[in-house]
């Protein structure tokens, strides 16, 4: 029997093929407000909490400007929800965890309602025991608040849980709460991710590791 009793996912880049949708929404929001940010910079910052992400890219500007950029990003992203699809291995991996009695939580980059809508449209909401949106916690990644709340809602101590994400910010958050830190890197060129204890190319390998640990 696995020592891991719960798994909390950041769905973007793990369950959902959605990172590019987020990046395009951010790029357009920034450009529409007079800021051009290279794609590589957006990629490196992806997964960071919104205020940190924006300030890392545009510097010290007024809260009013940041709020406008964020509103535009949310609008752009919501207009693109139909483009978000599951990765081919997502359904099988979630089935494996569900069958083994592993509780599944979602720590979303979006608000909870949007995350629920995306998961429902892609047919995997029934595998999820709890969703925590970025709108429900005071601080975002790399602060671990959203993961702490997700583990709380699925009734699992983080020390008996795994965080499955796609960025170093997810991995760092996991380390801060002593959860197993798993990163899914679908980029075959990437050999390591900072703070990750385990790195896998697909979700089925990660699910198998959780069940065997």
Q: How many distinct folded domains?
A: 2
Number of strands: 8
CATH architecture of the largest domain: 3-Layer(aba) Sandwich
CATH superfamily of the largest domain: HAD superfamily/HAD-like
Low-confidence stretches: none
**Amount of beta strand:** 5-15%
Provide the fold topology.
Layout: E1 6-9, E2 16-17, H1 19-32, H2 39-45, H3 50-58, H4 63-78, E3 85-86, H5 90-99, E4 103-107, H6 112-121, E5 130-132, H7 145-154, E6 161-165, H8 168-176, E7 180-184, E8 198-200, H9 203-212
Parallel strand pairs: 1-4, 1-6, 4-5, 6-7, 7-8
Antiparallel strand pairs: 2-3
Helix pairs in contact: 1-4, 5-9
Give a structural overview.
There is one protein chain. The protein is α/β, with parallel strands linked by helices and 213 residues long. The chain folds into two domains: 6-18 and 85-212, HAD superfamily/HAD-like (Rossmann fold, 3-Layer(aba) Sandwich), CATH 3.40.50; 19-82, Putative phosphatase, domain 2 (DNA polymerase, domain 1). Helices cover 45% and strands 14% of the residues. It is built from nine helices and eight strands. It has helices spanning 19-32, 39-45, 50-58, 63-78, 90-99, 112-121, 145-154, 168-176, 203-212; strands spanning 6-9, 16-17, 85-86, 103-107, 130-132, 161-165, 180-184, 198-200. It has a six-stranded parallel sheet, sandwiched between helices. Helix 1 crosses helix 4 (63-78) and helix 5 (90-99) packs parallel to helix 9 (203-212). The longest helix has 16 residues, at 63-78. The model has no long low-confidence stretch (mean pLDDT 91).
């Amino acid at each position: 029997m696995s020592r891991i009793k719960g798994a909390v996912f950041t769905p973007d880049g793990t369950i959902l093929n959605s990172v590019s949708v987020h990046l395009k929404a951010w790029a357009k929001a920034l450009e529409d407000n007079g800021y051009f940010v290279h794609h590589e910079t957006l990629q490196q910052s992806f997964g960071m909490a919104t205020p940190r992400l924006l300030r890392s890219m545009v510097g010290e500007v007024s809260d009013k400007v940041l709020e406008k950029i964020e509103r535009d990003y949310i609008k752009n992203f919501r207009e693109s929800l139909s483009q978000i699809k599951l990765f081919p291995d997502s359904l099988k991996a979630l089935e494996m965890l569900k069958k083994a009695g592993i509780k599944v939580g979602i720590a979303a980059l979006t608000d909870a309602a949007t995350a629920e809508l995306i998961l429902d449209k892609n047919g995997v909401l029934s595998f999820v025991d709890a969703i925590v949106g970025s709108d429900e916690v005071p601080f975002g990644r790399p602060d671990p608040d959203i993961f702490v709340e997700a583990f709380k809602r699925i009734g699992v101590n983080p020390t008996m849980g795994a965080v499955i994400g796609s960025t170093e910010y997810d991995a760092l958050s996991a380390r801060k709460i002593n959860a197993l830190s798993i990163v899914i890197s679908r980029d075959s060129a990437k050999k390591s991710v900072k703070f990750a204890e385990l790195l896998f190319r697909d979700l089925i390998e990660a699910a198998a590791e959780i069940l065997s640990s």
